[in-house]
Amino acid sequence: MATISYNQVRVILEKERRFVGMDMSRLDLSRLNFSGCDMRGAKFQYATLKEASFANANLENADLNGANLAEADLEFTRLVRARLSHAKLHGCRLVEANLEAAILHYANLTNSDLRMAVLMDADAGSAYFIKTNLTDVNARDAQFTSANFNGAQATRADFSGADMGEANLQSVSFVQCGFVETFLNDANLRRALLIESDLTGAKLRRTDLTNTNFANAILTDVDFKGATLYQTNFDGAVMDNVKNLEE
Asked: What number of CA atoms fall less than 13 Å from residue 113's CA on the CB side?
């Protein structure tokens, strides 16, 4: 389908509000209200969507690669299997958005609000989650290789089974979070707070744990081979069958 024009978008918004499979690539659609629209399979490659509202919209399988969604409202938005590589999502509201199996390579979610969002099986390799709110996020089995979480915060988030190898988790505050069987080899966890979190069976080989706080965490079966443990806090932690913990 050929790319539709800005004026055609406005007409559809005033009528059926259905954009299934339509191509809006490279259009400037900033501040338009797409809330509740059916946009399955729509294309927004390199579109400008700053401060637009997609609340409760269905963007399943949509192509948003390279789109600028800065400060957009994506609350309750369905983004299952959406493609968002290199998308600008900084300052977005993604509360309870469903990003299951979405592709987010190099996406920038700095300062975004992802509370209660679903990221199960998402691929967010090298994405930016700097100072992002990830409270109650479900990110089980997601891919976060080399992603940057510097200064992110979360309570009760679940990263169990996720691949966070070589990720930057410096200065994160992840309290009561799940990292069961999570792959964290070669990650940077300097000054991270992982208080009361469950890391049962996690892989922390060669991980930088300088000043990391594991107070009251569950570290059963964790592998610390080659990890940097300078001034690491294990007060009250459960450490049954810990592997390769070097003094």
From this structure: 10
List of domains in the chain: 16-104 (2.160.20.80), 129-247 (2.160.20.80)
Those residues with Cβ within 8 angstroms of residue 181's Cβ, 6 or more apart along the chain or in another chain: 160, 161, 200, 201, 202
Give the containing element (helix H, strand E) for 7.
helix 6-14
* Calpha distance 21→60 (Å, rounded): 10
End-to-end distance of the chain based on CA atoms, in angstroms? 63
140-180 pLDDT, tens digit per residue, is 999 999 999 999 999 999 999 999 999 999 999 999 999 99
- Asked whether 187 and 168 are in contact (CB, 8 A), the reply is yes
| Prediction pTM value | 0.96
Per-residue pLDDT, averaged over 61-83, amounts to 98
Q: Which two tokens stand for residue 91?
A: 């300052």
Which contiguous run of DSSP H or E holds residue 174? strand 173-175
